[in-house]
Design goal:
Layout (H helix, E strand, L loop, with lengths): L7 H14 L11 H8 L3 H13 L3 E4 L3 E4 L4 H21 L2 H16 L5 E3 H15 L6 H21 L5 E3 L2 H12 L3 H32 L1
Helix pairs in contact: 1-3, 1-7, 4-7, 4-9, 5-8, 8-9
């Protein structure tokens, strides 16, 4: 028997975000809790708990005396979130002992070279990217910084679901991960830092292109 590791609130959050990714909701519109709870087949209490959690993550906004509303989302919001994560991960790299980074450089390069697709389903790209960046920052001794990065990435994935569903294929520059790893192999920390920043900042244009393709497909249909 499969063991369910998610709480009911978390299951509701996941389902809501899957539907957001599928474009079922109009961003900026009010949320009818009665209708949504009936549609999801859950009671109002766990639904409200999920909505409060999503509000804390910036996915929806809570309007005093008026319930919840889908938070407007834009490419600019996504770009600003990426800029923050890029800066934080570069700081994590700066704080990591150079000798420890160089020691794991071959493992980082091997991981980079294990996924060289230039286009893949969004969930596969997300999974690989998370694993790669977690290894890259694993030697940072500042645990609070790593926790901050992790929390921002959760929010970033929420943003991405507005733009790209799990089944959409998105472009990726596989060479960017290899460039980061190769710089560490060469014990060139400034080059690794520059490549890491570029990897994050370049992702905004790829997500924007995926969004444009998705919108074009909607218009065509």
């Amino acid at each position: 028997m499969a063991i369910q590791r998610q709480s009911l609130r978390e299951q509701i959050e996941t389902e809501i975000m899957n539907r957001v990714g599928a474009g079922e909701f109009d961003m900026g519109e009010s949320i009818n809790e009665v209708t949504l709870s009936a549609d999801l087949g859950v009671s109002r209490t766990p639904l409200r708990e999920a909505l409060i959690s999503l509000a804390q993550q910036g996915v929806i906004t809570r309007v005093s005396g008026k319930g919840f509303r889908w938070a407007p989302i834009s490419e600019r919001d996504f770009t600003e979130a990426v800029q923050i994560i890029a800066a934080l991960e570069c700081l994590a790299l700066d704080l990591s002992p150079a000798s420890e980074l160089f020691a794991i450089a071959p493992k980082i390069l091997s991981l980079a070279n294990s996924f060289t697709a230039t286009e893949a389903p969004a969930h596969e790209v997300d999974s690989h990217d998370d694993t790669f960046h977690e290894l890259l920052t694993s030697k940072c001794p500042n645990r609070r910084l790593l926790e901050t990065i992790a929390s921002h990435k959760v929010a970033l994935r929420r943003y991405e679901k507005f733009f790209v569903s799990a089944t959409d294929r998105i472009e990726r520059a596989a060479s960017e991960h290899s460039a980061i790893a190769q710089a560490l192999i060469n014990e060139d920390l400034p080059a690794a830092r520059a490549a890491l920043s570029a990897n994050w900042l370049n992702s905004t244009s790829r997500i924007a292109k995926a969004l444009a393709n998705k919108e074009s497909a909607k218009i065509a249909s």
